[in-house]
Amino acid sequence: MRDWRLGAKAPPIESPPLRFKQPLRMQGLFCLEATRLVWFVDRPDLQFERELNRHLPQIADDPERFRAQVVCRFLHAPESGWSFRVDQNSSDAEYCYPASRVKLVQAIAALEAVNELAQSLGVFIDEHTPLSYAPLFPGERVETEDVGEGSVPPGQALTLERLITRALIASENEPANKLFEFVGWSGFRAWSQRHHLPHIRIEHRLSEFRPPREQRWTPRITLHAQEGTVAIPEQKPELEDFKESELRIGSAYRDSTGKLVHEGLDFSLKNRFDLVSAVEVLNRIGKREFRLTERQWNLIDRAMTTPPMECALPVYSSAEWMSERFKPMMRGLLAVRPAEEWTMGNKIGEAYGFSSDMATICHIPSGRVAHVAASIWCCASGILNTDEYEYESIGRPYLALVGKHTADMLTK
What we know:
Elements: E1 30-31, H1 44-55, H2 57-61, H3 63-66, E2 69-74, E3 80-86, H4 102-121, E4 131-133, H5 160-169, H6 173-183, H7 185-194, E5 200-201, H8 212-215, E6 221-225, E7 228-232, E8 248-249, E9 252-254, E10 260-261, E11 265-266, E12 272-273, H9 275-286, H10 294-305, H11 323-326, H12 328-334, E13 342-351, E14 354-363, E15 368-377, E16 383-384, H13 391-410
Parallel strand pairs: 9-16
Antiparallel strand pairs: 1-3, 2-3, 2-15, 4-6, 5-12, 6-7, 8-11, 9-10, 13-14, 14-15
């Protein structure tokens, strides 16, 4: 396994985050123009449309239903890149539920939080400090040991390092929820504002269905430092619900009782992490702009680049942890050049029919690097909360095609 820092070959980029202009209609299908992007003579967005028509024609035939989007930034040519998104005369068309992609910013925010806590209190605590989580809801118990889907020897301490490893490498939800609790709902709001990333909102835990008010509650967390214990108090913020106008997706959904509700599912109070912000976060990781130690940066790099079955600890050994599920763009890279020419760090997300990925891709021989984020909606029935989604037949092939197209651009 190659040991490669995501920021090692990334030259600085002084341009601000990409922002879309007002949608323009092109060929009756897609809006393809974005500000601060310099197009190639043979525009890569149009090349990608041709690739879609060739390999996944059903997407090109019905773009609004699939909500297909890509944002890419190339580092070898400042202010260059390409974008691709569905044209519907509404910003709602750009929404894609991020699912597990939020785990990347949860990990970064948790590491910054422990660093700030150590500095403010003058104690030595870090990502390896043992943690204990107090009960918050009925039926819960004190948690002090590392447990999860990947196996570890019994008695391993619960630490931020282990939570991040599980959340990013194998996309486990429970460790990610503990990262959310470590930072807190209000803490994430402050983090987004401090880093000028207003379009990233963490509103709830993953795969844990509670009322919005309870999603913001977090338990008492104790850090067991050598000098003593440090406690993060229980938080139950009583804030007015932040709710934008309704954002309904799909034609129907099943509620918590299994009843079919004949209207789209409202996403206005769900997590948000748009693709432009995803590319900006990847850019800042490459430039080492978050306030992490070198050892913490190495942890993020390792967690983004390691396939589950190559993780030393925890051990993920069954077929469900095959790398194609967790690194779908790599399939596209390998269609262009052999494995030894690539390094990729990424974070996928799959939920509510949305399949998305954000990745930093490096072509090692040329030193060229791209940050790319892509998403698509794979719900042919239009009915949500059924788990009947086309991730394998539409989502992952689409992301592989994005990887292939990006690889073609990097190796030209």
